[in-house]
Amino acid sequence: MNQKQRAILTVLAFMLILGAITVSAATRTIIIHVKGMTCGGCAVSVEEALKSTDGVTDARVSFKSGKAVIKYDDQKVTIAKLREVITNTGFSCDANLSPGRAR
Q1: pTM of whole model > 0.85?
Q2: CA–CA separation, 47 vs 83, rounded Å?
Q3: What is the enclosing helix (H) or strand (E) of 71?
Q4: Where are the alpha helices (DSSP H) in the chain?
Q5: Is 65 strand, coil or helix?
Q6: Residue 30 to residue 62: CA distance in whole angstroms
Q7: Where are the domains of the chain?
Q8: pLDDT per residue as tens digits for the range 57-89
Q9: Which of 3, 20, 47, 90 is the most buried (most CB within 10 A)?
Q10: From CA 67, how far away is CA 91, in angstroms rounded?
């Protein structure tokens, strides 16, 4: 095997490894119960804070249900960080989290 073939094989191996790492990252969905919201504006504040968090791909917060449905990349953000974002907006999170299905 000549040097050019080795270089090509090395690049291909690197691409396969990089692809495997990318595949291991998963978009997950979680429902966090948010306490203390008194109006739709509260929900908008929480939603905007979540959406501006690195790793969050989508967030929907409902004042009526008191729930935040969050889609996130589990390689970029943790559940603890999501809870921190919510509490930093002035609200509290229920200890009970409802995991959504991974996508």
Answers
A1: no
A2: 12
A3: strand 67-73
A4: 3-24, 40-51, 79-88
A5: coil
A6: 14
A7: 26-99
A8: 999 999 999 999 999 999 999 999 999 999 999
A9: 47
A10: 12
